């Protein structure tokens, strides 16, 4: 132990001195390399699994593409063999998958049946509206949900808590399309004395001009789909935050802080919430990945020109290359967000760092 | 000397909770008087569940008493946020499990400096800045050189070091008294002695008082000047540590002591250790008369009947002991038992009043 070293020479003061008032500062060290390597490796394995699934689901199961292409056209067996060779279909399955994986990693997702353009290009075009919608909805529902979750937990058992939890659970269990249609009927079509306040769909009204007018038009289009999406994902934030704060609330360090004279509000702000946020942040990131695919319904209902609408259209054709590309993008988003959450965790929690 | 004012006292203190299981009220603390004088270490001893933690929490103002008062230097504690804040600067807490009582995301420096930040620059005393004060507190708690610990996180320290950080966090405010709830129970046996030595050193050098809560009479023997034995929400025997540990009178204290091998009580009584039987005490259903009577070996062995006190044990309430220094016992058998003198009327000198620190036995 260190009790015996009473008369050592003074030790030089550490380089980064804790400053007054910097109670919530974090000491950020480099992430341990092995941890990062393990997480990135895990994500890579998941991605390969996704590609394997896509390969079998879209390349092997639908049958012989050469027969599909030549359907109705008289072809000789030699011609068929030639075509198969051209497509690489005469190679063993493993080699075919290898070619496929290399192609995908180069961003070549094939040509859409329906649009006759590259799938990657189509996805690129529709990516931003989705990110825009999902991003706005996530920020709003997280800001609201975390706040409400914290209040609920701190006064757990109170009427406020029960109301909050009840509302969250109700929103959680309402079907998305039902809620979306309800919003359209009430706020877009107009019902009784209520006029139609918002547009029923799309992202903008063609022909609008002027910066302010375009912006306002844009926001009016955003309101209903965003509100629907917020309602769908809000509950997760409330309930996760509430549960992890409740977990934290029995902790002795809160008693210690209180016994030192810290006000209840500060005990919550400085001690309980930062620690309870850790698990919530992870859930938040994992959710963003899921919400991207979860926005399919909302985008379809509100004709929002994002990946969700694209997916819906591809389904009705069915446009197999496009579906395949979207499948990979949606799964990739979940994997990426999981990876980010894993990498963020040690930055936030010193215990994981060493 | 008798005019000394206790740093901290419980005066007829009562705390009750709605019962955790089923209906009723749990009288966790049921009329307790307890004084801690300056420079004195008092051990509060009793089985788990007897209300020690509740009493400690109430003394710290973390629980509001249902009745009675907490007195600080003779003044009732005010339960306003300002009153409590001032009070909490002077009365500090050390909890059992140092891993839990430190915020895992705060460095040692932040943990120790927190008290100073709460109470503002007046808490610095003669020190030029926060950093010097934190370093001093860490050094006093035995973490030297203090600067080396500043940026460490709790998970990087040993259990003993963590408890020292907790103690430093308390010392930094220069309190008059520490309330320590089982301060070494979750530490390795090898570091327990060091932490106890630290508390004794603080008392001897700085006159720091302490109320040490423990279920372990052996620990009380090593550290306390005075012992209060608690059973089911009430103090049943209190007095100087030598008296309680060498000549215990309450059957409950005797039972607790008889299981300590070094107590000598088991051989002297010739009956071996007294194992307490009967139901674990339930604060929602406190027995009438003497609250210990369902488990009391004196009653069970028929000696109470022989002494003609059994009816009293079962039905007649015992006086509430007062919190001062003289030895007192709440038992009908004491005084009526031919063998034992009635210590409630025997004056005993108060411990340690200005005298040289008591010698330690190991
Ligand atoms: N917050 C509470 N709510 C209900 N009952 C409690 C609460 N705190 C303590 N008790 C009860 O009070 C009694 C005394 O508990 P405690 O003070 O923790 O005892 P000890 O510290 O001696 O083990 C126990 O029976 C316990 O169940
Ligand atoms: S009063 Fe009676 S029951 Fe209570 S401890 Fe004394 S002898 Fe036992
Ligand atoms: Mg306890």
Overview in brief:
The complex is a heterodimer of chains A (354) and B (362). With 354 residues, chain A is mainly α.
Descriptive terms for the model:
heterodimer; A: 354 residues; mainly alpha; MetI-like fold; 13 helices; flat; disordered N terminus; B: 362 residues; alpha/beta; Rossmann fold; 2 domains; 7-stranded mixed sheet; 4-stranded antiparallel sheet; 18% strand; globular; disordered C terminus; binds adenosine-5'-diphosphate; binds iron/sulfur cluster; binds magnesium ion
Write the topology of this structure.
The complex is a heterodimer of chains A (about 350) and B (about 350).
Chain A: H1 33-60, H2 65-69, H3 77-87, H4 93-105, H5 119-154, H6 159-173, H7 176-190, H8 211-249, H9 252-259, H10 264-301, H11 307-316, H12 320-348, H13 350-353
Chain B: E1 8-18, E2 25-36, E3 41-45, H1 52-59, E4 67-72, E5 75-76, H2 81-90, E6 91-94, H3 98-101, H4 108-119, H5 130-140, H6 159-171, E7 177-181, H7 189-206, E8 209-214, H8 217-223, E9 226-231, E10 234-240, H9 241-246, H10 251-258, H11 265-269, H12 297-300, H13 303-307, H14 310-315, E11 328-329
The complex binds adenosine-5'-diphosphate, iron/sulfur cluster and magnesium ion.
Magnesium ion binds near residues 52 and 53 of chain B.
Subcellular location (chain A): Cell membrane
InterPro entries (chain A): BPD_transp_1_N, MetI-like, MetI-like_sf
Organism (chain A): Planosporangium mesophilum
Q: What features would you describe in this structure?
A:
The complex is a heterodimer of chains A (354) and B (362). With 354 residues, chain A is mainly alpha-helical. Chain A has one domain (32-68, 88-188, 227-353): Orthogonal Bundle (MetI-like fold). Chain A contains 13 helices and no strands. The radius of gyration of chain A is 27 Å and the shape is flat. Mean pLDDT of chain A is 83; it is low at 1-27. Chain B is an alpha/beta fold and 362 residues long. Chain B folds into two domains: 1-73 and 182-362, 3-Layer(aba) Sandwich (Rossmann fold); 100-175, no CATH class. In chain B, 32% of the residues lie in helices and 18% in strands. Chain B contains 14 helices and eleven strands. In chain B, the strands form two sheets. In chain B, strands 6-7-8-3-9-10-11 form a seven-stranded mixed β-sheet, with helices on both faces. In chain B, β4 (67-72) and β5 form a beta hairpin. The longest helix of chain B has 18 residues, at 189-206. Chain B is globular. Mean pLDDT of chain B is 87; it is low at 337-362. Chains A and B meet through α9 and α10 of A and α2, α4 and α6 of B. The complex binds adenosine-5'-diphosphate, iron/sulfur cluster (SF4) and magnesium ion.
């Amino acid at each position: 132990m260190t009790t015996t070293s009473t008369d050592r020479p003074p030790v030089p003061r550490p380089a980064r001195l804790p400053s007054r008032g910097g109670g919530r500062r974090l000491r950020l060290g480099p992430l341990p390399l092995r941890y990062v390597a393990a997480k990135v490796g895990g994500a890579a394995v998941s991605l390969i699994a996704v590609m394997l699934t896509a390969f079998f689901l879209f390349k092997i199961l639908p049958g012989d593409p050469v027969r599909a292409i030549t359907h109705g056209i008289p072809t000789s067996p030699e011609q068929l063999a030639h075509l198969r060779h051209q497509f690489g279909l005469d190679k063993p399955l493993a080699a075919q998958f290898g070619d496929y994986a290399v192609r995908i990693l180069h961003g070549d997702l094939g040509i859409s049946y329906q649009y006759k353009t590259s799938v990657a290009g189509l996805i690129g075009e529709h990516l931003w509206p989705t990110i825009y919608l999902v991003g706005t909805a996530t920020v709003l529902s997280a800001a609201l949900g975390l706040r409400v979750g914290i209040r609920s937990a701190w006064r757990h058992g109170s009427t406020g808590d029960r109301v909050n939890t009840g509302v969250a659970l109700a929103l959680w269990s309402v079907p998305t399309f039902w809620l979306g249609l309800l919003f359209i009927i009430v706020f877009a079509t107009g019902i009784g004395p209520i006029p139609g306040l918002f547009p029923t769909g799309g992202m903008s009204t063609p022909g609008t001009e002027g910066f302010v007018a375009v912006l306002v038009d844009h926001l009016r289009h955003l309101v209903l789909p965003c509100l629907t999406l917020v309602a769908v994902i809000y509950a997760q934030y409330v309930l996760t935050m509430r549960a992890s704060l409740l977990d934290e609330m029995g902790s002795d360090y809160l008693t210690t802080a209180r016994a030192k004279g810290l006000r209840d509000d500060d005990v919550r702000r400085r001690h309980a919430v930062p620690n309870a946020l850790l698990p919530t942040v992870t859930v938040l990131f994992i959710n963003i990945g899921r919400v991207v695919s979860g926005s399919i319904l909302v985008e379809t209902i509100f004709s929002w020109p994002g990946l969700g609408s694209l997916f819906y259209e591809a389904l009705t054709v069915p446009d197999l290359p496009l579906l395949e590309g979207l499948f990979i993008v949606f799964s990739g988003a979940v994997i990426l967000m999981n990876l980010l959450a894993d990498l963020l965790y040690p930055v936030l929690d010193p215990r994981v760092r060493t | 000397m008798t005019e000394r004012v206790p740093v901290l006292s419980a005066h007829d203190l009562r705390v009750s909770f709605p019962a955790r299981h089923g209906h009723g009220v749990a009288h966790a603390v049921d009329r307790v008087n307890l004084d801690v004088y300056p420079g004195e270490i008092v051990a509060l001893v009793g089985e788990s569940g007897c209300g020690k933690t509740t009493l400690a929490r109430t003394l710290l103002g973390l629980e509001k008493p249902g009745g009675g008062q907490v007195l600080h230097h003779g003044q009732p504690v005010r339960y306003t946020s300002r009153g409590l804040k001032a009070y909490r600067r002077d009365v500090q807490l050390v909890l059992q499990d140092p891993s839990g009582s430190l915020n895992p995301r705060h460095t040692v420096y932040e943990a120790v400096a927190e008290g100073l930040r709460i109470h503002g620059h007046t808490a610095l005393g003669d020190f030029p800045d926060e950093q010097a004060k934190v370093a001093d507190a860490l050094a006093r708690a035995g973490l030297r050189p203090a600067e080396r610990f500043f940026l460490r996180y709790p998970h990087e320290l040993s259990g003993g070091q963590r408890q020292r950080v907790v103690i430093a966090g308390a010392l930094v405010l220069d309190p008059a008294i520490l309330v320590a709830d089982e301060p070494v129970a979750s530490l390795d046996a090898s570091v327990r002695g060091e932490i106890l030595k630290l508390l004794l050193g603080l008392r001897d050098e700085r006159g720091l008082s302490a109320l040490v809560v423990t279920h372990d009479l052996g620990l009380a023997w090593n550290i306390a000047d005075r012992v209060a034995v608690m059973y089911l929400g009430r103090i049943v025997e209190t007095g100087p540590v030598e008296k309680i540990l060498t000549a215990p009178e309450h059957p409950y204290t005797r039972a607790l002591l008889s299981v300590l091998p070094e107590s000598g009580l088991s051989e002297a009584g010739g009956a071996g250790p007294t194992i307490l039987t009967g139901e674990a005490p339930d604060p929602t259903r406190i027995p009438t008369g003497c609250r210990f009577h369902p488990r009391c070996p004196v009653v069970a062995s028929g000696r109470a009947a022989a002494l003609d006190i059994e009816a009293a044990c079962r039905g007649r309430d015992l006086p509430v002991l007062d919190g001062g220094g003289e030895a007192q016992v709440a038992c009908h058998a004491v005084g009526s038992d031919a063998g034992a003198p009635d210590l409630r009327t025997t004056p005993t000198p108060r411990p340690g009043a200005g005298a040289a620190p008591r010698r330690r036995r190991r």
